[in-house]
């Protein structure tokens, strides 16, 4: 099993920045890819950014390209989402997820953290 714990959400004004963290523990050696998802009220869950567990091979939703950066710290087993130039439409619950080797779906999920961007 793998446990994921997010932190770093909060309230920020439009144009501001936040950094989310996702700390992984447990059988992390089995992981292949990490992703940050978000879900706003009344909307479907959206994959915002993803990165290979070993680093590299990043991908971003068009809505956040150029503003968000996903990265990871190997020593800390932590994945980050640096969010810049935040907009009110970025308001959502952000969750990190992990995909195991050989899996087509994200198998493990964190509890989520609220990000609210005020105009």
What does this structure look like?
The structure is a single chain. By secondary structure, this protein is mainly β. The protein has no helices and eleven strands. The strands form two sheets. Strands 2, 4, 5, 6, 9, 10 and 11 form a seven-stranded mixed β-sheet that branches. Strands 1-3-8-7 form a four-stranded antiparallel β-sheet, with no helix packed on it.
Helix/strand-derived class? mainly beta
* Stretches with pLDDT under 50, minimum 5 residues: none
Give me the strand/helix succession: EEEEEEEEEEE
Helix content: under 10%
Overall geometry comes to globular
Overall number of strands: 11
Properties at a glance:
119 residues; mainly beta; seven-stranded mixed β-sheet; four-stranded antiparallel β-sheet; 11 strands; 0% helix
Concise summary:
This protein has 119 residues and is mostly beta strands. The chain has strands spanning 2-7, 10-13, 18-26, 31-39, 46-52, 59-60, 68-73, 78-83, 92-100, 108-109, 113-118.
């Amino acid at each position: 099993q793998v446990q994921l714990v997010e932190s770093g959400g909060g309230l920020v004004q439009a144009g501001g920045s936040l950094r989310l963290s996702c700390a992984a523990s447990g059988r992390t050696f089995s992981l292949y890819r990490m992703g940050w998802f978000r879900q706003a009220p009344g909307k479907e869950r959206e994959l915002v950014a993803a990165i290979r567990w070993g680093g590299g091979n990043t991908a971003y939703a068009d809505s956040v390209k150029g503003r968000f950066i996903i990265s990871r710290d190997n020593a800390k087993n932590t994945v980050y989402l640096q969010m810049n130039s935040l907009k009110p439409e970025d308001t959502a619950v952000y969750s990190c997820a992990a995909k195991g080797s050989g899996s087509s779906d994200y198998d493990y999920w964190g509890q989520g953290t609220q990000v609210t961007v005020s105009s």
